[in-house]
């Protein structure tokens, strides 16, 4: 499954956030095949639609879908110089599909800041710089190799060189490659470089208990917002300490606690959804009396592929998918009523599944 890596300088609240994630963790009973890697935290994806479908169908069992966060260990500063733990840091980032970059926005004299003062932008730039330098090294290596071949007028090499020429100056200016727009053909070359700074990123502004109720006018958080906007990246504001405390509470207690603090929704729940969207993931549902269940798919997938997520036989023998949109299911309150109203569609092999679709797959065995 796709995973988002939690990255940040020391003492910004990464472990606190990761603890919250593992405490909130998905019930192992539902996910016997979940990884047992201690650096991976599996959480359930909160979804009000699943709650509503459960209410309507009254199944024996409800199963949410899950999402994985990876705690990225290793030393950040000087990582690109490639020694021991620094190297591990970069290797770990290379393996994740998106980056959750935790930034310290809380003032607390008791907690030492590695750079001496709380300065979120400088923190972000410290990490980004290591990633940029590592990418620059990859690009330069490739450049040397490809430019030799390009001299023989090899078409592919010439095209590849053009892409490298596009990326290199941006990295040399200290900027991430994600700010560059590539054509579909160029994308192929870019993919083959396995760059770190093309991975989608979201910033997690970690604030204190006192700041969390009103973050609109928070000076430090706004600095992060401004920086992120320039990269078209999203910002999630969170108080990692509170999340750690509420991660173990039952839903009702959790709501009361958040209400007292003046917070609408748990920051972790929001973060899970943001990371899920960042990776281009969507959810479809199956809704039977035995089980109502949410399934994760990659947006853009066609019906047979999404059927294959449940079982490869469903994909191989796919005939069609009886489909109701969530809005219709919610409105007509049952599969039967939606069908009577003509809101159940019979979709074929070319159907691109939409977020929220409720699907019943027909297949040959
Ligand atoms: P890491 O080095 O990035 O993993 O940081 P930690 O999670 O170990 O946090 C460093 C220190 O900051 C710990 O003492 C935490 O209790 C504290 N801390 C983390 N998050 C918060 C927060 O939201 N509010 C406050 N006040 N302190 C926090």
Describe this structure in words.
By secondary structure, this protein is of the alpha/beta class. The protein has 3 domains: 174 residues, Rossmann fold (3-Layer(aba) Sandwich), CATH 3.40.50; 63 residues, DNA polymerase, domain 1 (Orthogonal Bundle); 64 residues, Ubiquitin-like (UB roll), CATH 3.10.20. 43% of the residues lie in helices and 19% in strands. The chain contains 14 helices and 12 strands. Strands 2-4-1-5-6-7 form a 6-stranded mixed β-sheet, with helices on both faces. A 3-stranded mixed β-sheet has the order 3-9-8, with helices on both faces. A 3-stranded antiparallel β-sheet has the order 11-10-12. The radius of gyration is 23 Å and the shape is flat. The protein binds guanosine-5'-diphosphate. Guanosine-5'-diphosphate binds next to helix 1 and helix 8.
In short:
With 365 residues, the chain is α/β, with parallel strands linked by helices. 43% of the residues lie in helices and 19% in strands. Strand 6 (201-206), helix 7 (219-230) and strand 7 form a beta-alpha-beta unit.
- In N-to-C order, the SSE pattern is EHEHEEHEHHHEHEHHHEEHHEHHEE
Low-pLDDT stretches are none
Number of helices: 14
C-alpha termini separation: 26 Å
Let me know the CATH homologous superfamily of the largest domain.
P-loop containing nucleotide triphosphate hydrolases
Helix content: 40-55%
The count of DSSP E runs of length 2 or more, i.e. the number of strands, is: 12
CATH class of the largest domain: Alpha Beta
